[in-house]
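Model the whole thing, not chain by chain.
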Amino acid sequence: MNTALPATVIGGYLGAGKTTLVNNLLRQANGKRLAILVNEFGSLPIDQDLIEAQDDEMITISGGCICCSFGSDLTEALIKLSEISPQPDHVVIEASGVAMPGAIGSSIIVLDRFQLNGIVVLADSTTILDQANDEYIGDTIERQIIDADLIMQTKSDLITSAQSAHLNSWISKINGKAHIVQSSFGNIAMDVVLSAAKIPKETAVSAHSDADYRSVSFNPSSFEDPRALAKALVGGGFGIIRAKGFVRDHQQNSFLIQIVGNQIDVSEASAQNDPALVCIGHVEQLDVNGLEELFQDEHSK
Amino acid sequence: MSGTIIYSARKIITMNKSRPTTTHVAVRDGRILATGTLEELSSYGSHTLDERFADKIIMPGFVEGHAHAMEGSLWSKVYCGWFDRADPSGKVWSGVKTIDAIVDRLKEADALLDDPDTPLAGWQLDPIYMDNVRVTREQLDRVSTTRPIGVLHASGHILNVNSKALELAGMLKAGFNSPSIPLGDDGLPTGELKGPEVMTPVGMHVGFERNLLDADEGGLRNFAKLCVRTGTTTITDLASRMDAEAVKMMLNVTAEDSFPIRLMPFRFAMGLTPEELLQEVITFKSRSTDRLRMGQIKIVADGSIQGFSARMRWPGYHNGAPNGLWYIAPEQLSDILHRALDAGVLVHTHTNGDQATQLVLETFEKALRAHPSPDHRFTLQHCQLADAAQFHKAGKLGMCVNLFANHHFYWGDEHYNLTVGPERATRMNACRTALNNGVAMAIHSDAPVTPLSPLFTAWSAVNRITASGRVQGEEEKITVDEALRAITMGAAYTLHLDGEIGSIETGKKADFAILEDDPTACDPANLKDIGVWGTVQGGRIFAAEDQ
């Protein structure tokens, strides 16, 4: 028997951080097969290092995740998604900047094979109050907030705590029912986003514990042995919980490295990919200096 | 085509200001060699004199600057509109005035279908004229309980379906909690689906396919037949998604010897990044033919006034409805306008509400400063609520307007009473103000929203009569001559085609509307009733009765 496919809508105005959040969800997917639907394949919606393959229809992402563009027909895209095999575990819809997330939610509730798990609306902490006063888009901004089950104040590291409190109370006046969380760099625990409508209001969603992950990118030139490099990343005490990307050996063969916890997967990539490796860890544990040294040492070999 | 044919006529209204009327036109190689008396034209050498139009009036082929080719496809479904309307074969379907009458008409169509499971679809239902009565699935169940049935409203934004259709879509169940899905006393959906986001999953079961916006092959031929019947020789498809298959189909169909129109599809701006959009459109442009002119972009800024989705400035909607919706973010609008001006690609933008018009004017002004383009012809489509200041600004920026004159007849009363109130309803589609401010102007039908018929559209702008028979906006009337110019040279200008079509003069395409009577001599109140014999397009003759 088929169970309904859970879906989450991510809304918010242009620049609110929707794409950053989506990429962070993908980095945390950890075996969960996410299907991301974006309004258009804009200036690439998915970080390059996560992409395994891409054609006009779909971007294939490591760990069984995918990303499709729905253009002007979301329903068609959703029905197609429900027919692919294997089924994704969860669908995330990134709304366009002026879309009403509630209307997108309506598209989901009429489809038998889907269930709406919640609407997350992002509010750019640095600009949303100005946007709300804009004569053209002000009411659009407010109506997006009204539709939300969960509101993320993004880029919250760029405002003071007093400003954040002010913003919080402004949002609460517009939507008193939704949870409000702060985040920066799109860092928030995946489960919070994917089950936005299911978090009881009384539950404290910690503002900061979810925002404490950091990612660092490297563009190394080449390595003697990519497999040895991967082992060093896991065993070297660098605090990495996830790492992913492409590296090359001295013969310029391209390798895909994926690390989740202690699990290592290194495979030779079919195509030549530019070297890029992203390492993620808890902000207090990720040893960025150590990693930089590691890559320096490897280079000199 | 070779040789010269001279057509005689009772009168030729040329729309060429240097020689406004004449009696003969010489055609060679599908183009106009010259106009004048037979004696004057004889100076061009050997010719054949063709007197088949000797008792007719010849005008330039009409140019419809805002229509959708999907009108042709909709005629494969059952017409359920309030007003009488002619189909592509010329059969006039009487308007249906009650829900019972709609059920009867659907029953007739049902009886013609052998398979009890085949879907049945109707279109153009408009309960506004029936005191906004709500249609229910039980009423449509009277037509059939075995086949899925759906009736699309004239707005295109509401669909009524029967129980079978809901069942097939998995929606015949309790538990919906959405204003888009009204529920009956039994807790089940009533069968009314409000808005594209809830219509689509059911629509595909009743014959409203997902890509409703695009005409299919048969629909495109039907669309062309309607053009011949109404004297139209060049028409836009505003807009089309233009995927590779659709473009191939359009290239094939328009190349057929018997295809009687020049089609100008605009690429819908959604679904691509601005960068990709421009690239794609420029590629299309290079594949254009005489009868398929690709390479333009349509942007939709807001929704519709009667649907309360148009973006309004203060004081907003007359009945207090909340402001409408943006269909594009201001930043994205700006991005496309900048890139299109830079690349020299024509953009027409749909703005219904006056706030949407204002946004486009302000955004366009900045883009124009960045990319000076003296002859861009960027056009505000509909632009229904623009005031004098906005028309003035549009004129100064070199923008054109294509006003929705037909709207005034079909929904003018609704606008007066409900949507925008007496004052703004009176100045809607202000043709007089547009012309007084020197704005290049066309007028349109937006078929299938209202029926294609440039002469009706001209009549609407001249008389400004609403469906209830009131004159609304005496001061915004234009003259018959101005209205005829709007449906010929005016529309051609907004499409950058005024050097090729829109008037009867040397060098232009031999595109004619062949009329039974003289629109400049009749009572202006009868302008819409002038008979159309057919058209000449690129020198090829198309009689309405052969369509």
